[in-house]
Amino acid sequence: MRSRLGALCLLGLWLVAVACQSPVSDQPLQTDSAPLEPTIEVAVAQDRLPLDVAWMHSDDVDQLTAVPQVAWSRNGLALILDPRLPDAERTFEWLDAKTGERRPATDAAEALRSLGQQYAGSLPEALTWPADLSSDCRRALYVMGEDLWLLELDDSRFVRLTETDKPEMSARFSPDGEQVAFVRDNDLYTVEIATGEERRLTRDGSETVLNGTLSWVYWEEIFGRRDLGYWWSPDSRAIAFLRTDESAVGEAYFLDPSTPYARLITQRYPKAGTANPSVRLGVVGSRGDHRHWIDLTTVEHEYVARVDWMPDSRRLAVQTITRDQHRLDLSFVDPSAGTLQPILQEDDPAWINLHDDLVFLDEGDAFLWSSERDGYTHLYRYRSDGTLLNAVTRGNWSVRSSAGAFWVSQSIAAVDEDEGWIYFTGQADSSIERHLYRCRLDGSERERLTAAAGTHRITAGPKGHYFVAESSDLVTPPALRLHDRTGSVRSVLASPRTDLVRKYALVEPELLTIPARDGFEMPASLIRPADYRPGRRYPLIVNVYGGPSAPMVANAWGGSDPFDQVLSRSGFFVLRVDNRSATAISKTLESTVLFQLNGDSELNDLVDAIRHIKEREDVDPERIGIWGWSGGGSLTLLGMTQSEEFRAGIAVAALTNWRFYDTKWAEFANKMPEVNPGGYERTNLNRFAADLHGRLLLVHGTYDDNVHPQNAWQFVDALVAANKPFDMMFYPMRKHGISDRPARLHLYQTMLDFWNRELGGDAPAIDAPR
248: helix, coil or strand? Predict the structure, then answer.
């Protein structure tokens, strides 16, 4: 139930730190007064350009956050594609980090001419970032017309790799760049680039048997929306893959109304307490010349959570996790010998979070590992037999990802074994920022490499000798800079688009903390109405998400959504606040929702925040609204049924009953329904529909294959039974993100109209009482 679009786009929203084990924070909210660039000048009111829903979806807004895309080649050059450039000027470039020199990597016009001579479909106006790049970044892989195309950058030439009436998916280069693996009709294939020879590696793919591609629950929950169903060996000779049997998994149904007799669409979706897909791990030669099935039955598990090849290309490192998610096992497996060696086990009384921080050292004789065993997320170094050598990081802070799905962590950016450095991202110096650090393998000599305040998304080159940082803060849109391994800036690859900010006179968010009833300081940000005047009272809208370790407050440009600015221009305060389990400072805080996700812990923090904000003399306590998407929609319904703090609310794609959600996510905190029936009952929002306070707008897509529409239908039915008035907007055949441009324009205009109608945002502000 995680949304990646619109107001809940969490990729750029980094974590805000608060305390961990005591009710009062032992780590105060920290900021750094030095911005990335000079503070943006605000235009006078009469010079402001209009901010409306159309502006939210304009090229200007897209350009605000657009920065060049970067990939590092194995030889240390960086490949760059700059989307800010006009189509006619856009091409791939090589960046030499040592000299700062940039030069074209291909002739874009010639490449597109080459494509046009072979491809009968609509041609792109410019080169785009590919689906995959070879390790030397000289070959790029594209999917066009459901076939695979290869761009040879050196020759500025496209080559067609497949031509069938079946779509190819999940295509990736072999490590040596000479083969491409892909999935067709749920079977795994390879194609040799030099000869075009195609090889079919599996033969039992069907509607319910998936080879090399993932079932929904694995794609969404375990691999963070990445279709990682197979893994090339480092020597490019073999592929490990998952074979998934979904025949025992229940089906969900959707109706496509576009034909006279609506088409029925089915989806295999395991719901809380029901059967999961059955998964086997196999290894097959890249030419289909051998196959081994891995026997994992000696390790108690429900999910095959991670598969990594070890440097010798002979063994696999396999992570498995139990159904209750209390235990994770790391095992080393030799497929040819059929042996399994237990290495280490992680146990957590609440649940285990997954990570991608397994990195091998000394050709496999040692490895790095991430663990939350002390209540924070830290890195550890082990021998290959599972003997702990040392903690690499420690303290009352956590290593954290600089990008990617918030429920899958990857903090290690690079390792330089020759010099003995580990490069990683985390929040050791600021609770509302992400920075790059390095330390020695023994954990000594830790230093911060990103000096400027803000949030930094890191793409590191080989061994971390150079890195590219996409950096922003609350008042400065993203910029892209090349740094060396000491953190010094070598060149600016893209400056922040402060010119676009300035001409619209955007309102700067204010960072603050709000105390909970026990003194816990919740991080928050507040945007004032654009025409704010002291002595007046204004309506306030709180935008919430609230999911575990999924903060919305950060010293980052993503901390202010364009819709927040539209609401500000319409006369509203806009508040974001993170309940303690959402702050992501520690696993201890996150685990406070055990057995009752979307329950009392989140509700109490939310109510405390709103009651505190109502005490402000410039906020009208009678005109408070709440809205959220996905998990934020659920928190909206919780707040509107279990408190009387809100006059109106909007719940988009809200989950209303955990029994309707998938096994992996519903069960990590609430466990299986038969284990925790009381928790499922207490968090069933449909039971509370009769207690609705205020006016509600329900929004859902009818093809939401993440949070199924039955959640909304059940809540609507309960509202009708209680004779509760409400508003509703459903979007036909839209999925969880309701992401197409027409639907987005309609949705946000509908929400703006709702707020103006219910809270009077476009009406004159009320004078505060004297």
Answer: coil
Q: From start to end of 24-178, where are the E strands?
A: 69-72, 78-81, 92-95, 102-104, 132-133, 139-144, 147-152, 157-160, 168-173
Helix 631-642 vs helix 600-613: crossing angle, to nearest 10 = 70
736 included as an active-site residue = yes
pTM for the full model? 0.93
Residue type, 211: N
**Residue 746, helix vs strand vs coil:** helix
DSSP 279-310: EEEEEEETTS--EEEE--TTS--SEEEEEEE-
Q: Among residues 215, 286, 472, 630, which one is catalytic?
A: 630
Contact 498, 37 (CB under 8 A): yes
Tokens 């070959």 belong to 139
Residue type, 549: S
150 in Cβ contact with 144 (< 8 Å): no
Q: Output helix, strand, coil percentages for the chain, rounded to the nearest 5.
A: 20, 35, 45
With the C-alpha atoms ordered 692, 697, 701, 705, is the resulting torsion angle positive or negative? negative
Cα–Cα distance between 614 and 271 in angstroms, integer? 40
630 is catalytic: yes
pLDDT per residue as tens digits for the range 565-607? 999 999 999 999 999 999 999 999 999 999 999 999 999 999 9
Interior/surface letters 39-61, b for 16+ CB within 10 angstroms, e for the rest: ebebeeeeebeebebebbbeebb
At residue 288, φ and ψ (nearest 5 deg) are 75, 20
Annotated catalytic residue, options 549, 608, 704, 708: 704
**649: pLDDT strictly greater than 80:** yes
DSSP assignment string, 541-596: EEEE---TT-----SSGGGS-HHHHHHHHTT-EEEEE--GGGS-S-HHHHGGGTT-
Cβ neighbourhood burial of 155 (10 Å; 0-12, 13-18, 19+): middle
Q: What are phi and psi of 467, to 5 degrees?
A: -145, 155
- Give the sign of the dihedral formed by CA 685, CA 687, CA 693, CA 695: positive
Active-site residue flag, 365: no
